[in-house]
Amino acid sequence: MPRSQRNDNSIDRTFTILADILLQIIPTTDREREAFTYYRDGMSAQSEGEYAEALQNYYKAMRLEIDPYDRSYILYNIGLIHTSNGEHTKALEYYFQALERNPFLPQALNNMAVICHYRGEQAIEQGEPEDSEAWFDQAAEYWKQAISLSPSNYIKAQNWLKITRRSKE
């Protein structure tokens, strides 16, 4: 049984009801409805930590979804899963793909910056200060882009940019 039909909790039930109403009101094709169902099931599985199931649903949604904007959110969520699993290189690839389809995803840029910052910290621990600076510089660039899209968010990143004197570069 598809996850959207299980309705395991009240939030899922409410979201499913609202999504079904919207799908009836908004003119959509069967293909678009099916893609959205897989996307919705992927989000539900992801929220419960069922990453393998979420990925299966997202990949099915990607095969059906043709709208670049909608695809960007599917790719972004796939990137989130890979980030959660510590697969940072894969995560970056999916965030890049999401941004290619929708350059107005500050959350993807933020996550890319967080990964680069983490790699910078790892480089410090491994005694590679030049590499760490390169990673930190890349993190700064991603954060600047995210902040330019969403100026009232990412306050910690804004402070880090100021403290490290990377805010004006």
UniProtKB/TrEMBL annotation:
GO terms of biological process kind: photosynthesis
SMART domains: TPR (SM00028)
Cellular compartment(s): Plastid membrane; Plastid, Chloroplast thylakoid membrane
Membrane topology: Peripheral membrane protein
Keywords: Chloroplast, Membrane, Photosynthesis, Plastid, Repeat, Thylakoid, TPR repeat
InterPro entries attached to this UniProt entry: PSI_Ycf3_assembly, TPR-like_helical_dom_sf, TPR_rpt, Ycf3/AcsC/BcsC/TPR_MFPF
UniProt keyword annotation of Transferase present: no
Keyword Heme (UniProt): no
Gene Ontology CC: chloroplast thylakoid membrane
A matching Pfam family: TPR_1
Each TPR repeat, start to end: 35-68, 35-68, 72-105, 72-105, 120-153
Family: Belongs to the Ycf3 family.
Job description of the protein: Seems to be required for the assembly of the photosystem I complex.
This protein's name: Photosystem I assembly protein Ycf3
Source species: Crepidomanes minutum
Phylogenetic placement of the source organism: Eukaryota, Viridiplantae, Streptophyta, Embryophyta, Tracheophyta
